[in-house]
Amino acid sequence: MVMMKHSFFSLSLLLIILFHSTTTSSQTPAPSPSSSPTDIIRILKKAGGFTTLIRLLTTTQVSTQINAQLLNSNNGITLFAPNDNAFSSLKPGFLNSLSDQQKDELIQFHVLPTFVTITNFDTLSNPVRTQAGDDPERLALNITSSGSQVNLTTGVVNTTVGGSVYSDHQLAIYQVDKVLLPRDFFVPKPPPPPAPAPLKGKDSKKKSEDGAVSPAGDNSDAMSLKKHMHGIWVFVGVVAVFSL
Ligand SMILES: *[C@@H]1O[C@H](CO)[C@@H](O)[C@H](O)[C@H]1NC(C)=O
Ligand SMILES: *[C@@H]1O[C@H](CO)[C@@H](O)[C@H](O)[C@H]1NC(C)=O
Ligand SMILES: *[C@@H]1O[C@H](CO)[C@@H](O)[C@H](O)[C@H]1NC(C)=O
To answer: Percent of the chain, pLDDT > 70?
Structure first.
């Protein structure tokens, strides 16, 4: 009888321990599937200090897009989140000088279409593809890392990852001390493609275009003559030097 009581006691003790360990371990993993979908704005609001970023994410609707991507894709998202200090150290009026399209590009430039843990940045190859696009001249984002030190450069701005704001299996948010400005905002745009000929006055337009062909040809002839002459002068110079 005493024996039975004893074993009953140890069994319930074992059960209590088991139950306790399963409940505590189930607290560590991220949100259970039954929880509501991830809302990046809610996460940033909770973290605090991201007022301007939240405003830009909302006005550009990139937040809606990110929430949808998290729901519909398995690749996850990484967001570099400049805090309010980062935005206030921009040149005064800079943000207001951007068009809606540039604001969209700026915010997409802070988003990677994959979930990257802090120690996995060294697996990416430079330039890293952001959601702003992959033009290596204008939209390059280079990331170099060693352990948890992560350096970012856009060619215009250098900064480092200041810490992790949030991470689950899908979404990683890292705080950065500077706004990542793409080179695209600072290098001159390539000349736009020639405008289509207006419908009215098509014939006169054509005439003037035909007329323009011959001077252009003359020009290139003149150019090659110039080059030719230049060559002759260099030759004359070399001969002169040698005959000294
Ligand atoms: C990051 O940049 C700092 C200087 O800004 C440098 O000392 C460090 O070596 C860099 N780290 C990596 C991993 O590139
Ligand atoms: C980024 O990395 C690529 C490849 O290493 C390099 O060619 C490019 O110059 C780098 N750009 C910047 C802005 O550091
Ligand atoms: C960024 O870092 C690179 C190399 O570390 C340096 O050459 C460049 O001048 C820096 N650019 C800015 C804007 O600080």
So the answer is: 66
For residue 174, the SS3 value is strand
What is the pTM for the complete model shown?
Answer: 0.69
Q: Which residue's CA lies nearest to atom 3 of ligand 1?
A: 151
How many separate domains does the chain show?
1
Helices 62-72 and 51-59, axial angle in degrees (round to 10): 80
- Domain presence at residue 78: yes
Mean pLDDT confidence for 206-221: 44
Domain housing 103: 35-185
d(C-alpha 120, C-alpha 77), whole Å: 14
Residue 1 lies in a domain: no
Q: How far is the CA of 17 from the centre of ligand 3 (A)?
A: 56
User: Has residue 80 been placed in a domain?
Assistant: yes
Q: Whose CA is nearest to atom 6 of ligand 1?
A: 151
In tens, the pLDDT along 92-146 reads 999 999 999 999 999 999 999 999 999 999 999 999 999 999 999 999 999 999 9
CATH code of 162's domain: 2.30.180.10
What 3-state DSSP class applies to 183? helix
